[in-house]
Write a structure and sequence with these properties.
Layout: E1 2-5, H1 12-22, E2 27-28, H2 32-39, E3 47-53, E4 56-70, E5 73-85, H3 94-107, E6 113-118, H4 122-134, E7 138-141, E8 145-150, E9 161-165, H5 169-177, E10 184-187, H6 191-197, E11 204-211, E12 214-228, E13 231-242, H7 248-261, E14 271-273, H8 281-284, E15 290-302, E16 313-314
Parallel strand pairs: 5-6, 10-16, 13-14
Antiparallel strand pairs: 1-3, 2-12, 3-4, 4-5, 4-10, 6-15, 7-15, 8-14, 8-15, 9-11, 11-12, 12-13
Helix pairs in contact: 1-2, 3-4
Length: about 325
């Protein structure tokens, strides 16, 4: 088995093949275009490792550029994802080797890394912990990300807040800059990253949240593509949520706007919200959000001491 650091753009077709076989339906529809977009964000060079057996792709892992803010510190960073091994190459320790190879390369960057792992996958977490230790990195567990669903109801009470399509990237950047909860490792995209996000091969929208005529937050929503046994389902999905002072009304406004953003394109009226960790638990149900079984553990990994390792929660999209 050969492991090679590859250009993610050039390796996208092979990576797509590996991911689609590694994660059978129902699962995210991992097209090559989607992978190129995710790994092509402006910032530090994306990193990826591809495993091959006799020239045949066997496994893949990638790290996509992002930008973070915590306390007074702002930094480029990575979200590590796309860990996948084709079925016929599984149970050979390949996932562990992929993690170790990529993390060893990322350590030299000195940048913070965010990783999401399915909460119910103890073996996957053990593989991550072992690779982090081998790379001499430090790891901090953040608040768990519980997926929530939302179904719009005509009988729902009106809210004081509204969410509308953003007219300009600058308006969204101002809302993001207002997020100041010092427990949160904030996603902090700049203008170039926000503009790149709108080139998502799936449909995507940026929203502004307003209350009493003033901006109180922002959000990104997209039309997720889920491969199922019957074909591709398209589900409105809340990506990153930027609410400096979250309330049930503000969250409800975002979820309702998401349910209306892709009229005629979504295959079901439900909205999926993978990461509402910044919203207090007692505000979720009043907003109409209902917990599902999908849960992800979030971790921040860094070669040195704080500030990143002092974070308690993140609003970063689950990738």
């Amino acid at each position: 088995m050969q492991l090679e650091h590859v250009d993610p753009m050039a390796a996208a077709e092979e990576a797509s093949l590996v991911l689609r076989e590694a994660w059978p339906p129902p699962a995210l529809h991992y097209t090559a275009d989607y992978l190129r977009w995710q790994l092509g964000f402006p910032g530090p060079a994306p990193r990826a490792v591809l495993a091959r057996e006799g020239g045949e792709p066997a496994g893949f892992i990638g790290a996509a550029p992002r930008r973070f803010r915590f306390g007074g510190a702002v930094s480029a960073g990575y979200v590590l994802s796309f860990v996948s091994v084709r079925p016929k190459f599984q149970r050979q320790g390949l996932a562990s080797r992929l993690y170790s190879e990529l993390l060893a390369g990322l350590r030299a960057s000195g940048l913070p890394i965010v990783v999401f792992v399915e909460a119910r996958s103890a073996p996957a977490q053990r593989v991550l912990f072992k690779a982090v230790e081998a790379a001499e990195l430090k790891l901090k567990r953040l608040a768990t990300c519980q997926n929530h669903g939302f179904v719009p109801r005509a009988s729902a009470a009106p809210t004081r807040a509204v969410a509308r399509p953003a007219g300009a990237v600058d308006d969204v950047l101002a809302a993001i800059a207002a997020c100041g909860d010092e427990r949160v490792l904030w996603s902090a995209p700049d203008a170039a990253q926000l503009e790149h996000s709108l080139r998502d091969p799936r449909s995507r929208r940026l929203l502004l949240v307003e209350e009493a005529g003033r901006s109180v937050g922002a959000a990104a929503v997209f039309l997720s593509e889920i491969a199922t046994a019957r074909g591709i389902d398209r589900v409105a999905t809340l990506d990153a949520l930027f609410l400096p002072e979250p309330t049930a009304d503000r969250l409800a406004a975002v979820l309702r706007a998401a349910s209306e953003a892709f009229a005629g394109q979504a295959t079901a009226p439900v909205v999926s919200a993978p990461n509402l960790a910044i919203v207090p638990q007692d505000q979720l149900r009043p907003a109409g959000a209902r917990a599902t079984e999908a849960t992800f553990d979030a971790f921040v990994v860094h070669p040195g001491d704080g500030p990143w390792l002092d974070a308690e929660v993140t609003n970063l999209e689950v990738v």
